Amino acid sequence: MPVTNMVQALNSALREEMRRDKRVVVLGEDVGKRGGVFLVTEGLIDEFGPERVIDTPLTEAGIVGVAIGMALYGLKPVAEIQFIDFIYEAFDQIATNLSKIRRRSGGMFSAPVVIRGPCCGGVKGGMFHSQSNEAYFVHTAGLKVVMPSRPYDAKGLLKASIRGEDPVIFLEPKVLYRAIKEEVPEEDYVVPIGEARVVQEGSDVTIVTWGAMVYKALEVSKIARSRHGWEAEVIDLRTLFPFDKDAIIRSLEKTGRLVIVHEAPKTLGLGAEIAAYVAENAIELLKAPVARVTGFDAPFPLAHEKLYMPNEARIYMALSRVMSY
Amino acid sequence: MPVTNMVQALNSALREEMRRDKRVVVLGEDVGKRGGVFLVTEGLIDEFGPERVIDTPLTEAGIVGVAIGMALYGLKPVAEIQFIDFIYEAFDQIATNLSKIRRRSGGMFSAPVVIRGPCCGGVKGGMFHSQSNEAYFVHTAGLKVVMPSRPYDAKGLLKASIRGEDPVIFLEPKVLYRAIKEEVPEEDYVVPIGEARVVQEGSDVTIVTWGAMVYKALEVSKIARSRHGWEAEVIDLRTLFPFDKDAIIRSLEKTGRLVIVHEAPKTLGLGAEIAAYVAENAIELLKAPVARVTGFDAPFPLAHEKLYMPNEARIYMALSRVMSY
Amino acid sequence: MAHHFTAYEVEELLPELKASLGLRRFIDEEGNEVQKVPLGPEPLMRMYITMVRARILDEWLLRLQRVGKVALHAPNVGQEAAAAGSAMALREEDWLFPSYRELAAYIARGMNEEEILDRAMANIDDPLRGSEFVVYGHRKYNIVPAPVPVGSQVPLAVGAAMAAKILGHSVVTMAIFGDGATSRADFHAGLNFAGVFRAPVVFVIQNNAWAISMPSRRQTAAKTFALKGVAYGVPGVRVDGNDVIAVYTTASEAVERARAGEGPTLLEAVTYRLGPHTTADDPDRYRPREEAKAMEKFDPIRRLGKYLKARGIISEKEEREIWSEWGERIERIVKRCYEKPPLPPSVVLENVYSEPTWNLEEQMRELEESLEVMKELGIGVE
Amino acid sequence: MAHHFTAYEVEELLPELKASLGLRRFIDEEGNEVQKVPLGPEPLMRMYITMVRARILDEWLLRLQRVGKVALHAPNVGQEAAAAGSAMALREEDWLFPSYRELAAYIARGMNEEEILDRAMANIDDPLRGSEFVVYGHRKYNIVPAPVPVGSQVPLAVGAAMAAKILGHSVVTMAIFGDGATSRADFHAGLNFAGVFRAPVVFVIQNNAWAISMPSRRQTAAKTFALKGVAYGVPGVRVDGNDVIAVYTTASEAVERARAGEGPTLLEAVTYRLGPHTTADDPDRYRPREEAKAMEKFDPIRRLGKYLKARGIISEKEEREIWSEWGERIERIVKRCYEKPPLPPSVVLENVYSEPTWNLEEQMRELEESLEVMKELGIGVE
Ligand SMILES: Cc1ncc(C[n+]2csc(CCOP(=O)(O)OP(=O)(O)O)c2C)c(N)n1
Ligand SMILES: Cc1ncc(C[n+]2csc(CCOP(=O)(O)OP(=O)(O)O)c2C)c(N)n1
Ligand SMILES: [Mg+2]
Ligand SMILES: [Mg+2]
Predict the structure, then answer these.
(1) Who among C163, C192, C357 is closest to A69 (CB)?
(2) Which residues have CB under 8 Å from A155's CB, separation 6+?
(3) Domain identity same for A79 and A174
(4) Domain ends where: B149, B183, B217?
(5) Which residues contact C274 (CB under 8 A, 6 or more apart)?
(6) What class does CATH assign to C10-338?
(7) What is the domain range of residue B265?
(8) Residue C67 touches partner D, C-beta closer than 8 Å
(9) pLDDT in tens, D106-125
(10) Catalytic positions of A, written as ranges
(11) pTM (two decimals)
(12) How far is it, in rounded angstroms, from Cα B128 to Cα C132?
């Protein structure tokens, strides 16, 4: 199995799906010759031509609106948003058409568009190249939301998203694009949407997280083990909606303690829904308050992003809080 | 004190603030001669002229973007979105400029725009005249979010919003526009942003809610009292962000049971943040799981809206659940 | 790039600019031919009957709204020529992306009164399953139901057209929307994409002089709406939208241009909204009654009727018969639809995803339980 | 409404259309006067020095980015005339809404190198408090820092212009943005409002031939960008954007028209991005090197220098002295800024609201505690 990074894994997923199904097309700003600013679409235009790898004018509303129209007609468009921070111009298309056309048309029409783009911080990208805005999409009924943390999942989840019948917001933590390399099968596989992955088993506390925070959680769990002997179970949610509630509950049955870590701002970040779900359905499992470690409720900064984002210290503080309750 | 409905209360708030401060202007679709489709701006153009009561072209992105520019320059614009369901075209302006310009400019510029519009269901308005989309704004750092449930608060909160230095999303439950009449002072007053109101005291269970659901909660609390003798404390949150956490905690200290009722869809509706806040900071107060009664995670329907929205039966079910835990 | 620092001449653009500023028409308000009509009796009669059916249905919908059987109606009255004329230019395999005011367009495309009324009443046969009011559509007719946020369907029509082109289908799409909708982001994005990709799409602006209370000259400072095409390299044509012959002829040319791979067209149909914006509107607040009164003389049905009679295609008696026959037929359909049962409660959780997610399954159980509890508490579902 | 069903003539629009399609210039690539230059030595020298300062600073910013002292830089190289010429047309009390590539515009407006470098390095004196990279602005100079999402500032400039008009101030606003930005919703909304309300605003499109890898002919099928004004009733003018005299003269006319209450103007400055899109870009992937090479002959600084020398305003020696003097001066400033300490951690929670809300207070405590714990765990803050 070749060792690849996430960019290459995503690129193969696109390439293989485009080979498999003529209806799959890619569109977005600079996705052609430029290959996207992170090269996720590199070389696709050479193999599939400009009819299926479509460089668009600079309007996210147009990219998403046009992709929806393509999907209604029968294509399977994968729309790239150059940085997910730029998706807001398309928000009306997402809230009005993408997420609702199936219901609006009584099930007669559907728009299984995949919108993918780089998200999250950690690359000193400043306010508009670092956002984690998954919560807006999780709150929007009709969408599925995915965020892989490793090349294997990136490829398998992107394939599952393209093959699915529902619109998917596919978020790629850009800091991981080239940071993680691993063996990724060349044969066809999918990672099903909706299933979390237990990255590390543990019996004392459950850390639910996703994206690049998975690695931060693992690091802190090492510190916690060596300092205190605490064994943390780390769950990579992978699919943010519909999230794998059963995996969370299963883990809490063991640990009784829950720390949620995400980069998005705290207030109504997805951590809120997870905490609320537990408070509603499994409160009796809890031996301590839930703890959230998140981006602050402020615009993502250029200066001191490491202090703004959840870091080892803040995750460690949360672990200590729930363990010493 | 004159007895007025919410439309009249809002209209007086605008009129009085425009008289008080020349910098206050109103803009939006059909706000001039038409007076807005619900007549909230009725007559203002006659008193203040078309320079301060501005009928705009049909673009919410334009309305909000232009209002932000006006505010940067020094005006105090109150932008009407004809139905809040149409705000999504302006989402980029809200996420990029309105909520962030203060931080983006290191505090040198600010845009204290009030965006107001009719929200929520109950008038058979179908998918795009019924939405409760407050969660998107609560999740967006830099915004304040308000929703009055009665004429007195509508007037006082709108005045507070206009006088404040921060952008406010001001949501008006249209089903209440003419349904509730009460005495509203003619003398100047404000209702401070950030303070909830205890609508009914009770010792057994706390119902946190807002907008038109306040009345549903009160109705069900009557049923609960007469059937079971349960005393529900009903809290009208009024300000959705920054919400009055202290009022919620104070009440839970008495009751130990929490039911949250809102019209917005459940997943990452504001109920999630309230539940999460409690699970993080006051879990020891809880004698039962938290319960949420919300709009379903589906587009707002034309048919059977009464079944889609929280209704007496569903609130009653939640009360029974937490009381019999 | 060689040509980056160079000037262009205006001449090349002149024919297009003229078409964008003019007002193409074949028959005038009195039904007089002002330009040779290139159509035989058959299509003319089809247009006439389509418009008559729309007008009769329109009046029914108003009445049904008044008695609470229909939630909201946006009358097409006075605009039937713009709607019918453009939709008739499409072939069966083409796609239509209408707005909420296109009664005559649905009929032109084959939707029958029963399908429209089931929809309007959101009864058990409503093809859109009670999702929304005022909008219509059906897979069978390639009509995508409008989003109520105006103009949001414009990029969809462009995307569908691009898809058809990519798949090598000889299919054209058409978006119909109002003058107000041209101000929205979606118009801009859609037109721009269409121009850049030469998508086989026809845009029809129904310039009915008003967007609720905003007169069209307050919507834009552009001379005409058709002229906006210049900003996108999309040829604009302005026609008398109450002359169904002009609309149909121009739309047909545009559709065939698109089908032939020559790209999109922006058609401005100048028309007039004779009624209120919707049944929820009160135009007296902003529009002098005399204005609408004076505009009645442009009524497209009356106008075509006059022409048909002048050309001897129908007699006065036949004209009356058309109205009365369709009147009776539609009345029977209204009665049938009126009696149909409502949709089941479960519709509120349907069609959110291809398969319900776990939260929707949970919520379906909550819904079912709530129906029991409502009975217990004595609360009705309506 | 009387005029609703009528046709318009093209003649009235012809002068505007011609200006939108042409390419106004005063001096050609070799600095030869092709049209009488209406300016004396003083403004010409000011333009020249502004552009030289921008060019020198630009090179420093590239270097500083390479050593990691600046996070990202979007070179203005080759476009200084467009940026400086338009901004210089403004008075002190006017407002500028630039994009991220307008180094010469900030200087033209009075921002000095130190303020720009503090910003670029996000050090303790950064006026924007470490909020974002690549953008610049200052209350003192009425420069509103750009939003990185391109074009989002356009309606802001319109709103500010409308506000000035409402308050009776004789103030004009200007938005500068790229060819790519014209595709965005905000361009459409902003231009449309400006046309309808005759706002005192000047829009400057820097058509630098590229939007990252997209050539401008793929951005729109419109003949020119200036022509887009027609869609909004906003007069368009197309100028040679590398002729600072043409840019300045045209922008000044537009600014004065606006100040006189005659409404907005859309100015297309045809220029060329000689460098990469930003320091993160690799143009070799999509643009032939020869193209950029061939475009160097249009360099606006070289061009004005030739003209100044031909007109005898400066000598070769004086020209060299300007470069070396400013070179030394700016080097000293760079060194000073380089040594300044970083911003305090608390900036990440600053300026979200006028007063911190309770959640931010909580989070400030969390941040403070985390700084202690980081020390304890031996983790650095960078
Ligand atoms: C995005 C959006 N904003 C506001 C509305 C409310 N609204 C409904 S129709 C309408 C006017 C539309 O005018 P026009 O496009 O000219 O169509 P017409 O009604 O004249 O057919 C408005 C403002 C809406 N439906 N969508
Ligand atoms: C809304 C948005 N989408 C995408 C981007 C990413 N991006 C940054 S600059 C740019 C191209 C801009 O081109 P243009 O407007 O011509 O300005 P130029 O860079 O040529 O000065 C793109 C796509 C962005 N900043 N904003
Ligand atoms: Mg209209
Ligand atoms: Mg450019």
Answers:
(1) C163
(2) A9, A10, A12, A13, A184, A189, A191
(3) yes
(4) B183
(5) C75, C77, C78, C79, C292, C295, C296, C299
(6) alpha beta
(7) 197-324
(8) no
(9) 999 999 999 999 999 999 99
(10) 129
(11) 0.98
(12) 8
